Amino acid sequence: GRTAVVLVAAGSGTRLGRAMPKAAVPVAGVPMLERAIASVAAALPEAQIVAVLPAGHASLWQLCASIAAAPHDDGAPRPHLVAVAGGATRNDSVRAGLAAIGDAVHVLVHDAARCLTPPEVFAAVADALAAGARAVVPALPVVDTIKAVRAAPDASIAAEAVASTPPRSGLRAVQTPQGFRRDVLVAAQRQVAAWPAARAETVTDDALLMEMLGEDVYLVPGDERALKITTELDLMLAEALIAAGEE
Ligand code: CTP
Ligand code: MG
């Protein structure tokens, strides 16, 4: 296939604070990873999916194996799904996923924690890649005013201080799937591999690497439903969205 999806699901889910990796946490009764795979496969039925999993969590590996083997009686193609073990940071997990993809021209890197991402977002990213963009990211306007901060000017006040306020109209919050020409992403990752760990840990999204290489990163419309389930509040919101969709 020409497109592969690296679905990163190897995080521990510390902020959600359950006794299991976040990808295994049920969202309205269905494990987050299962919802994420279903949404990717529905949006991009021809794409290869590489699920990047926590090495030690057998039930997630079993879930992937059973999805890959499941018969499809409705004639829909079954997901081209493989699973690999992730690493200590998100970027390590992305690298592990990239190493496992076949002969794809384009790669979408997607957070399993954004398990309710609607097909329009995948389509918008894929369309921009097809039109020739080398890096594409879904984005939304920010709703809060964002401050850059600095250390407290008065050390007797236990608080940080405002450094500056970038105009909100010029800011966007980015989501996933983030889409790339595979050769460009692989080249960027090769550079990061040589970085000290402290710097590598600052790679919080994949577009950042493209900016570093001087690549133009294009923005397409994101979607509120592509929220990243990070905290208990996000999980409540996701379950409310599912309930609303079933009405
Ligand atoms: N991720 C990953 N490997 C890691 C860390 C994160 O594959 N070592 C994935 C997560 O599984 C998630 C996505 O990257 O789908 C975004 O990360 P985040 O929301 O931070 O998830 P966690 O790292 O699991 O959560 P926390 O930071 O609260 O521990
Ligand atoms: Mg994390």
TrEMBL record:
Alphabetical keyword list: Isoprene biosynthesis, Nucleotidyltransferase, Transferase
Superkingdom of origin organism: Bacteria
Gene Ontology terms for molecular function: 2-C-methyl-D-erythritol 4-phosphate cytidylyltransferase activity
Residues annotated as site: Positions MEP for the nucleophilic attack: R168, K228
Pathway noted in the entry: Isoprenoid biosynthesis; isopentenyl diphosphate biosynthesis via DXP pathway; isopentenyl diphosphate from 1-deoxy-D-xylulose 5-phosphate: step 2/6
BP terms from Gene Ontology: isopentenyl diphosphate biosynthetic process, methylerythritol 4-phosphate pathway
Functional description taken from the UniProt entry: Catalyzes the formation of 4-diphosphocytidyl-2-C-methyl-D-erythritol from CTP and 2-C-methyl-D-erythritol 4-phosphate (MEP).
Listed name of the protein: 2-C-methyl-D-erythritol 4-phosphate cytidylyltransferase
Source species taxonomy: Bacteria, Bacillati, Actinomycetota, Actinomycetes, Micrococcales
